[in-house]
Design brief:
Elements (H helix, E strand, L loop, with lengths): L22 H15 L9 H5 L5 E4 L14 E17 L5 E11 L2 E8 L13 E7 L1 E3 L4 E5 L2 E4 L17 E4 L8 H14 L10 H5 L10 H9 L7 H5 L4 H26 L11 H9 L7 H14 L6 E6 L5 H14 L3 E5 L3 H14 L7 E4 L5 H12 L5 E4 L13 E7 L6 H8 L6 E6 L5 H7 L4 E5 L10 E5 L4 H13 L3 E5 L7 H19 L5 E4 L5 H12 L5 E4 L12 E7 L6 H8 L10 E5 L6 H12 L3 H18 L1 H4 L13 H17 L4 H13 L9
Parallel strand pairs: 4-7, 10-15, 10-16, 11-13, 11-14, 12-13, 14-15, 17-22, 18-20, 18-21, 19-20, 21-22
Antiparallel strand pairs: 1-9, 2-3, 2-5, 3-4, 5-8, 6-7
Length: 725
Amino acid sequence: MSAHLSLTTALLELPAYLRGIGVTTAGKLAAELGSAIGKVSPAEVTVEDLLLYLPFRYEDRSHLPQICDLAPGKSASVLVEVSLASSYPIRTRQGKQLTLFEVIGWDSTGRIRACWWNQPYLRQVFQPGRRVVLYGEWEFSSRARCYQVENPDYEVLNDETDDDVPETIHVGRCVPVYRKLGTFRTRALRSLIFRLLQALHDVPDDGLPDELRHDCGGLPPLPTKLAALREVHFPEATDHLESIQARRSPAHARLALEEFFLLTLALANRRRQREQAGEKAGMRVTYAIRERARQTLPFRLTNAQKRVIREIVSDLTGTRPMSRLLQGDVGSGKTVVALQAMIVAVENGWQVALMAPTEILVEQHWRSMTRWLSGTSYRLAALTGRLKPSEKKAIRQALANHEVDIVIGTQALIQNDTAFARLGLVIIDEQHRFGVLQREQLLARGISPDVLVMTATPIPRSLAMALYGDLDVSVIDELPPGRKPVVTAVRTNERRNRVYDFIRQECAAGRQAYIVYPLVEESEKLDVAAATAAAAKLQQEVFPTLVVGLLHGRMKSEEKDAVMQKFVAGEIHVLVTTTVVEVGIDVPNASVMVIEHPERFGLAQLHQLRGRVGRGAAKSYCVLMAPDGISPEALERLNFFAQTPDGFAIAEKDLAWRGPGEMLGLRQSGLPVFRVGDLIRDADWLTLAREAAWRVWREQPNAPQTQHWLARAQRMFPMAMGGVH
């Protein structure tokens, strides 16, 4: 066995380092682990990747009672000597042939029986006279008059066929339990990981700055990298098993801090690349520009909006490109703030691109911008996939010739044939719905443009640091005056008719309502079918004197637009819809939002839906129609939502209950996949690592050690490093 095994050794090369690992096994392991952690090529999967495949729980098998001390229904390890081992066929009632392998073992206090199904090869393992440790849940058999166990874990203590494996890995200690990895079960993973840890020597402990390793927020000095890896897989002591189980031990801290530290360095590097890409779009703000911007305001700004505008203007007129995240709760007026930034850019001779995730949201922005800028000379265009080829070509030509000042569009803005004459400001709405690469592709169309990222989904602080660690953050934490809170209530089917009566009353008073249906399963067809059937039934049986409309994601763009225009015009009283209305739809006359099966939505998504009402002068309502038999936990979530108007409080709770992946959607969000750290559990470690990383970046960005860390970050978080490749 070679002495040069390292963390960067590819798993495909394991046959050269460990006996008993063949080329086929190594290839299958690399492929299955690579698929689990998002690495496309098995050749990229390393020993470190496998060692960061942590146990999901541990079992304390360290205590070895004698047979006389066993208790029914309790799991325990017991050391016995094999006296008899045999296998014999058994036919089930269904006529299926099975093989039962049975072992009888003894110690000085009694006898036990252990059995395994369909594992006849065990006869070569359990030979009479061998000492073995068995672990499982023991039951007393009055028929056999002894304790017995089915399919236990085992360890043969006097088997010397594998020098790399000590006497006890699977029993007689604190044992790691791994989730199955493809065809590799926990026992095989446990043996392989132990052998790897035994074979590793002199692992460099350079993943963290010394200051972070030795002074980590009240924790004792952190272990070395190799010691941490050994401890998280095979804890030596059981007195701190609770912290190990919770992944809050010093060993876990050592590994999680490294992830957080490297991610923050990667984000800092991405920001520097953007700032050094070229000359910044130079801008200045004069009294005349301020007056033109002020004249476009549809209402008086709140103090929070004024503060955020000052922060943005300071960035626009600074020497470095703006990189700012604008957060604001539903209805807080983010788009008006973005409008002020647009005017500053256009008045300085630059073009502006606003990218939104859906055509409905693009249309919403288009209507608002057209209305607010109607008295100006600014030239606007909307670029979406639904336009005719000739229309797209004309708009792209106008952008290239600087005949358009502001363009609002979907991902059509980042297609190869879209070019700008002088792009100076990029605004990305609902950024978490775009991948990192899409953001970079849009930025590449300008000369170091200023970047403003907007989201109406309040992002908890720890999640914002991971998603937007390269951005400065502005928060609009104040709603415009006169904006009334939406009255929210949880109702069950027994009160459905009263809810329908209430909708009729609101429509009779000249207002309108939404009824939202969730994704039934992971199938858009079923989603559409449910909404379509509901719309027909509501029109025919429930609201025959009202006009019921239908909106869903599989409709053609022109069909969606036609429906929304009718709803905005008041020609549709009740709009049955799927979640395409989640973001951006602004119909001030709509006063009721009924959400069917709300338990299927995340809290943040419910908050977005609730934000579609309450935009006008009328008092507005959101009704959560919970199904019969809803679980107490789901009902608790809904009641919390109904009583909480604060989007940031809702986002924190949603993050804690569902996790970041479900909250944002991993594929769309660009959220890094952490192997050890957890954004909820380890927010304090994330803060420590972030502070240390930015300190390193400010003080020694070009030092060899910093460049080494960046190279490691490239391997661990390639998407966070930025750039269009």
